[in-house]
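U., I forgot to send this yesterday:
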Amino acid sequence: MGIKIQPMGDYQTNCYIVDVDGKEFIIDPGVGATSWVKNNVKNPVAILNTHGHFDHVWSNKEVSNLFNIKIYTPRDDNFMLEKDPYNLGMPPSSADYLVKPDEELDFDGIKVKFHFFPGHTPGCSAIEIDDNLFSGDFIFNNSIGRTDFPFSNPNDMKKSIDKILSWDKNIRIYPGHGSSTTLNQERSSLVNWKKYL
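Result:
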């Protein structure tokens, strides 16, 4: 498996291109992502959104139209793609497929699991592909996503932290901002953040 990463826009939101057996998944195409994606893919098959915040989905429609590929978004966050709730002039998009909580998708034998971790947003999810977790704004290196935004929920975030801390495996984490980490490296930080909430 190959992973390409490029921070996009003012918030340096990580856009990922994940290559599995020659099939490429574009995760969170944010502000200005289209040209980088175009120059770095050969066989894109889907756009995967971890959640609906503008800096993660800004280029959804442009990339989807360019490659004629579908957008997969957590069901409870699709309204953010369509409505531009922060009034920032984001080009609207809409999911072709609304992903249900903890749903696993099969792309010609490639398993893609959307782990449901609400709190930062109602549909916030971390996408597992081949034992790698693309965590969006749920977990960062030594931090977690903010819960003071509109549509955020600190109590949901606490439950989500408990949920991932119950995992008995280690996994590499590629967050929506900043550098990669692992679940084992983040366990103590997650416990502390839960107390803070």
